[in-house]
Specification:
350 residues, mainly alpha, two-stranded antiparallel sheet, 2% strand
Length: 350
Amino acid sequence: MDVPYAWGAFVVIFITCLYTMWGGMYSVLWTDAIQGIIMFAVAIIMLMIPFIFVGGVDPLMDQISMTDHISSTGEPIGSGLVTFGALVPFLYILGIGLSVGMKQISEPKNLIRFYSIDNSKSMKFAMIWTPIFLGVSLICVMGLGALVHGMATAEEAEYLIQNTDEVIGFMLDKFNDPWISGICVAGLFAAGMSSLASVIIIIGTAFVKDIWNVYTPMSETTIIKRTKWTMFIYCGIVYLFSIYPIDGIVEMTAFAGSVFAASFFPAIFGGLYLKWGTDMGALTSMISGMVVNIVWRFGIRFQFESMEYIHEIIPAFIISMMVYLLVSKWTSHRIPGDAHLSHIFSSRRK
C-alpha cells in the first residue's frame, strides 16, 4: 500500500480511539459484530491462499512434508512441519496452546462481552456459535506459518523464520492479488481494532471509575471526561509500543495470554464454581499470577537452557491456582453470606 508503518499504525489506533471515546460500549459491541464477521471470512481466505498458490492440497502437503528449509536452530527442517514435536518440545507447544486458549476465557476484553449478555436467548446463541466461530478461526490461522513454507524459497523461509511478523505480508505479496490482499488487510485491521477498542474501554473505566473514583469521589460528568482522557493517553502508549515493539507478535500475544490466564482464570473459576472462594483469594492469585509470569520470563526462562521451552503459563497458572485455593481457605471468615451465595448460585449453600 506504500504507506509508512508509523502512519498506518497511527490511523488504525486513533480511529479506534475516537469511535470508542465517542460511542462507548455500544460502539464497541456493534463494530465488533461487523469486525468479527470480517475476521472469520478472512481466516478462511488466508488458509486457502497457500493451497491455491501451490496448486492444491496434495502438492502443498508434498512440499511441506519434506523440505530443505532451515529451522531457527540452523538445522534442516525435513519432515518437522508435519511431525508433532519435531521442531519444538511438547511443553512449549502446550504452553503456547494454553496461553492462547485460556486467554479467550479469562481476557478482560472477552469477559465484558460475556457479562453484557442480558437474556437467555442471546446466551444460548453465544454458547453455540462462539466455539464454532472461534474453533474454525483458530484452525485456519494456527497452522498458517507452516503452510507458507510451501510458497517460499529456502532463502525466503530463512528470513521469515527470523521475522515471523512478516509472514502474512509475504504471503499476500507472493500471491499478488490486489483484491485478496485488500480483503485480508481489512481483516487484520478489524482484528486489531476489535481488540484495542475493548481494552480501551476497560482501561478507561477501571482506572477512573473503579479506582480513582473510590479514593476521590467525583461527579458523573467528571468521571466521563476523565475516562475519555485516560483512553486517549492509553492509545498514545499503545502507539509507542507499536512503533517500538519489544518482541515478535507471537511471543507478545502468548505472554499476554499467559498473564491473563494465570491472573484471572482462578478467580473466574472460583467465582463460578466454588462457594467458599474469597475476595482475598482472588486478589492474591491475581498478584501472584502476574509476578510469577514476569519473574519466570525475565529472570529464569532464558537464563537457564533447560528452562527455555517451559512457557511461563505453566508455573504461573499452577502457583496462581494454588494461591487462590489456599488463601480462600485461610480467609474463610470472608466468605460471603448465605443470602448472597443463594442469589449467585440459585441455591442455598450446604
